[in-house]
């Protein structure tokens, strides 16, 4: 069953603009949290006693949260996009704030795994809601505007970081005389005293407490974001049942993704994400360590490079949105994937600060453009009744198998392999993605979600007719 088309419009309405603003604030924290995990990693490691070779394994465990987020997205096909968005925003804020009080490396990884669980689902729901509500002609531009804010979140984190972390002459963190640092750390100390927890004065704790601020966004989301029209139409035709039967039906629906009708589109999206995460996951995990410990950059220099690179990264999302809607999905996505692979390998082959600026800008611009286009694909290829489930399973479950590559990289580094060599090996990922897009991806430019389903169903039927008996 395919949902009836939502009322067509060729331009953004006032509600569309309000929706993009509110959902954009939610997606902004994707870059904020991911950046905290990598940029503050040397300081977290020093406080909690985590070895460099061990960091890859612990970082890899946080990716379990990314993968498990498919379950929360699947629930959005039964309980609604709006309800699950509110739930995941609250869940991320609580678990991110709780990270500030981690006493051991296991506490830290547990809270960050849960934070990634809620945040990844929150991010996906924002894209799905936008995809279902925005007009077809502008859908890709709206979605990539949302994904660009993850890059903005990274920029903000890079700028905030020096106010919480700064190296003194001995390499130890030094207290900065500013209200942001002092206020956040004082609040951490007060809560530790209330919970009867020891307080070590580690400055990264105040930074993670900032992750609880999405709680302030909840009232605005609850008051302003409505359920999508496409979902309401599907939900109105569905019978109610017990909670057990609801989840049983949802897993049956998920099983449809492996049926001939959906299998090809499901595999394309899952393989695309694996191709890009093959290199992105270890790069994010180890770049700050590479820059500070091998290139010799300071916290301030790392923050400056991240700031400039991710400003261009946000532009990459926006440029991608324009090209995807005007030129087409296939050529845009494939081109950015291939060029991004070259840039990210070169980033880990330069030991000059100028080179770090140049290649980091190139890497983030190109791969963010590719990621934005892939998010558009992932939100378009499944019918409304399976859209969140299909997105969750293909993007966050099967699509993130290579998120565990940092575990392998950490092991290889422990055996003597350099960070540079490790990234060079996995740099083949986006090249494979570009070939996959060129060969198998569907062009969906200018089509409504319902027209896309008709086109895909026609191709599936034609493929079945050609198959040997």
Short description:
By secondary structure, the chain is mainly α.
Describe the structure.
- This protein has 469 residues and is an all-alpha fold.
- Helix 3 (52-79) runs parallel beside helix 5, helix 12 (260-295) runs antiparallel to helix 18 (419-426) and helix 12 (260-295) crosses helix 20.
- It has helices at 14-39, 41-48, 52-79, 81-99, 105-133, 139-164, 179-195, 204-209, 218-224, 229-236, 243-255, 260-295, 299-326, 329-347, 353-380, 387-397, 405-414, 419-426, 428-440, 449-466.
- The chain starts with 13 loop residues before the first helix and ends with a helix.
- The protein is 76% helix and 0% strand.
Helical element count? Answer: 20
Q: Identify the CATH class.
A: Mainly Alpha
Structural class call reads mainly alpha
Percent of residues in beta strands: under 5%
**CATH fold topology:** Growth Hormone, Chain: A
CATH architecture: Up-down Bundle
The tally of domains stands at 1
Biggest sheet layout: none
End-to-end distance: 27 Å
**Approximate shape:** globular
Instruction: Classify the helix fraction into a percent range.
Output: over 70%
- Please trace the helix and strand order, writing H or E for each element: HHHHHHHHHHHHHHHHHHHH
Based on DSSP secondary structure assignment, what is the total number of beta strands?
0
User: For the residues shown, what is the average pLDDT?
Assistant: 81
Q: Unreliable runs, pLDDT <50, ≥5 residues?
A: 1-8, 167-176
CATH level-four homologous superfamily name = MFS general substrate transporter like domains
What Rg is obtained from the alpha carbons, in whole angstroms?
Answer: 22 Å
């Amino acid at each position: 069953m395919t949902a009836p088309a939502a009322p067509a419009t060729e331009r953004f309405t006032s509600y569309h603009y309000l929706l993009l603003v509110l959902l954009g604030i939610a997606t902004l924290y994707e870059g904020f949290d991911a950046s905290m995990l990598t940029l503050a990693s040397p300081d977290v490691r020093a406080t909690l006693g985590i070895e460099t070779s061990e960091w890859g394994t612990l970082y890899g465990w946080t990716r379990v949260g990314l993968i498990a987020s498919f379950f929360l997205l699947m629930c959005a096909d039964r309980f609604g996009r709006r309800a699950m968005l509110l739930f995941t925003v609250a869940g991320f804020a609580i678990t991110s704030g709780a990270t500030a009080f981690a006493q051991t490396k296991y506490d830290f990884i547990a809270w960050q795994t849960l934070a990634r669980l809620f945040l990844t689902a929150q991010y996906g729901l924002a894209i799905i809601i936008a995809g279902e509500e925005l007009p077809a002609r502008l859908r890709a531009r709206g979605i990539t505007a949302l994904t660009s804010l993850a890059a903005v979140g990274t920029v903000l984190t890079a700028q905030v970081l020096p106010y919480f972390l700064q190296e003194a002459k001995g390499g130890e963190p030094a207290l900065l005389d500013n209200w942001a640092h002092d206020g956040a750390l004082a609040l951490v100390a007060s809560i530790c005293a209330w919970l009867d927890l020891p307080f070590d004065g580690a400055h990264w704790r105040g930074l993670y407490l900032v992750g609880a601020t999405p709680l302030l966004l909840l009232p605005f989301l609850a008051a302003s974001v409505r359920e999508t029209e496409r979902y309401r139409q599907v939900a109105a035709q569905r019978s109610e049942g017990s909670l057990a039967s609801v989840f049983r039906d949802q897993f049956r629906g998920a099983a449809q993704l492996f049926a001939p009708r959906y299998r090809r589109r499901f595999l394309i999206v899952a393989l695309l994400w694996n191709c890009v995460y093959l290199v992105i996951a270890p790069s994010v995990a180890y770049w700050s360590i590479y820059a500070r410990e091998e290139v010799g950059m300071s916290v301030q220099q790392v923050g400056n490079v991240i700031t400039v690179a991710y400003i261009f990264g946000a532009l990459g999302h926006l440029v991608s949105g324009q090209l995807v809607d005007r030129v087409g999905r296939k050529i845009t996505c494939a081109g950015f994937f291939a060029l991004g692979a070259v840039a990210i390998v070169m980033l880990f082959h330069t030991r000059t600060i100028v080179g770090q600026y140049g290649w980091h800008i190139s890497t983030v611009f190109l791969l963010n453009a590719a990621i934005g286009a892939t998010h558009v694909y992932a939100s378009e290829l499944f019918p409304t009744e399976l859209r969140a489930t299909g997105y969750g399973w293909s993007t966050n479950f099967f699509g993130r198998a290579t998120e565990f590559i940092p575990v392998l990289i950490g092991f290889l580094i422990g055996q003597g392999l350099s960070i540079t060599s490790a990234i060079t090996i996995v740099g083949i990922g986006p090249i494979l993605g570009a070939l996959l897009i060129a060969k198998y991806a569907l062009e969906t430019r200018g089509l409504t979600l319902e027209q896309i389903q008709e086109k895909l169903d026609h191709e599936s039927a034609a493929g079945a007719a050609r198959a040997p008996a």
